[in-house]
Amino acid sequence: MKKRKYEAEQTKQTIVEGAKALFAAKGYAATSMMDICEATGCSKGSIYHHFQSKEDLFLYLAEQAFTNSWQTWHEQSGGDHSATEQLYAYADYFVDTLQKPLNKAGEEFMIRVGADSEAGRRFMEIIQNYMKGFEDLVQAGLDSGEWKGESVQELSFIILSYYSGLSDSYHLMDKAAMKELFRKATTLLLDGIRK
Questions:
Q1: Beta-carbon contacts of residue 77 (< 8 Å; ≥ 6 apart)
Q2: What is the pTM of this model?
């Protein structure tokens, strides 16, 4: 029984890794279940045994990516650092994880399924859970009196949008230059929200 369970987990992992590579390379819409079968060597039946649909498979990947990303950040940022120090560290982490393979596919996924669909709502819930973690960092900055702001959600959204906009330049410079750009941008941002 244990061997069968292990083999099932291995098959699922093969499907997940193959699908992730395809979604990253081709996008969500251009990746078919047949493509995933060919890339993984798994039958459609095997894929549907683990995932109800292509949407379900993509949502699984998104949840893994966002949960793992936040857990990794949380482990790296631990300690008694001020919110300002943590924001600088988060900016470095953001640069370190810039080439997130599912970002563009996630945007396409939402356009394809629509925000009002069950899949769209599930995807937004994954994003909101990630945002909640970042909001805790921003709330710490507000609570400690380091930063000013009226709404933790609004300020969190502004900061993450700011970093996302900067990340569009990552093809134009190396990682060290990007980190320096993000550090300067963080200083500029903090000049606006520091008390």
A1: 86, 89, 90, 93
A2: 0.77
